[in-house]
Amino acid sequence: DTGVSQNPRHKITKRGQNVTFRCDPISEHNRLYWYRQTLGQGPEFLTYFQNEAQLEKSRLLSDRFSAERPKGSFSTLEIQRTEQGDSAMYLCASSVNGELDEKLFFGSGTQLSVL
Amino acid sequence: QKEVEQNSGPLSVPEGAIASLNCTYSDRGSQSFFWYRQYSGKSPELIMFIYSNGDKEDGRFTAQLNKASQYVSLLIRDSQPSDSATYLCAVSTSGTYKYIFGTGTRLKVLA
User: Fold this and answer.
1) Position A2 pLDDT exceeds 80
2) Between chains, do B98 and A106 touch, taking CB under 8 Å as contact?
3) Of A42, A95, A109, the CB nearest to B88
4) Contact B103 A103 (CB under 8 A)
5) Per the CB < 8 Å rule, is A42 touching B45?
6) I need a labelling partner for A47 at 20 to 30 A (CA). Which of A20, B3, B59, B63 fits?
7) How far apart are the C-alpha atoms of B71 and A90, rounded to whole Å?
8) Which residues are CB-neighbours of A62 under 8 A, at least 6 positions away?
9) Is A29 within 8 Å of A94 (Cβ atoms)?
């Protein structure tokens, strides 16, 4: 168990560019989540997958954001035409099917800075 | 009304005291409740979860849940400077496995 891995750790980009982040969950975990966190705020839900199926996407998420989880393993989050307001920490978390006690395990996050 | 509300703090307590952190939620169908600790610059880590009304103890931590009042709290006994962090309350939404987080309460334990 190597934990949830996210790459890159930091990304600096210019406004208007596209960026892609990768998340590798804990190997036996079938649920994968993406959250966004800005300074002084809690993690904001973006989307989650069960295996390869994207089950829910936040209505706050514009169509510039897309996430995939091919084959139910790693996931990618792409942001197109980045804006300064996209600057945040993007957190990935994974969990294994559970009942009431399902727990999220977070990766170290990708810090995005849009200049 | 926010789905999960917490006082942002900071909450300052002296070393050895009891720290009490509170959280309210709006979805009456919520079934599972979690407390995460987040140190500055780090990702959240789970410290407690609860899904039944009442108290649940784990070492120095006690989670309390009152579904009728839509209220969940975390007590930290014998607070240590190393407990200084932001504590995030998370609630599972009814019918899904989506977890909604509060804004977190910043705790400072003064030596």
Assistant:
1) no
2) no
3) A42
4) no
5) no
6) B63
7) 28
8) none
9) yes
